[in-house]
Design goal:
Length: 140
């Protein structure tokens, strides 16, 4: 267990799979290997040292192609920050690095299941996300 924070609960806040028509489905099926995974993390302070951390995964075609699909999952973690955490940088690391690292395996599984259930089985993400590296690049 981490001494700086505790994840009290996780839940899917929003989930979206958008394939507008058959042509888009067929085009996406043939081109899904070109889709890119984006991650966005936001947070909202709550009462009693609680923080809502929203980790959003988007899987999309970033080209100008009209016939395409779009997939998104927002996974929310309710996190209690322990009394010893006073520094802003420590709080940033918890929100942007520690919590996403802890929940990512489950979040990735949810997105892969959404893709499979939407008619695109067998999609895999080759690279694992290194939140520690991303955090260091942003703040160092």
């Amino acid at each position: 267990m981490n001494e700086k924070y505790k994840i009290l609960s996780n839940f899917i806040k929003d989930m979206s799979s958008e394939t507008p028509d058959v042509e888009s489905y067929l085009f996406t099926k043939d081109n899904i290997s070109k889709y890119e995974l984006d991650i966005d993390i936001s947070s909202n302070p709550l009462k009693n040292k609680l923080i809502e951390v929203n980790t959003c995964l988007k899987f999309q075609d970033k080209t100008k192609q009209e016939k395409k699909s779009y997939f998104e999952v927002i996974y929310t973690s309710v996190v209690r920050i322990e009394d010893g955490v006073k520094e802003k940088k420590d709080l940033q690391k918890i929100v942007l690095c520690d919590v996403p690292t802890e929940i990512y395996t489950e979040l990735e599984k949810i997105l892969l299941n959404l893709l499979s259930d939407s008619g695109y089985p067998g999609v895999k993400f080759d690279k694992k996300v290194d939140f520690t590296k991303l955090f260091k690049e942003k703040f160092n």
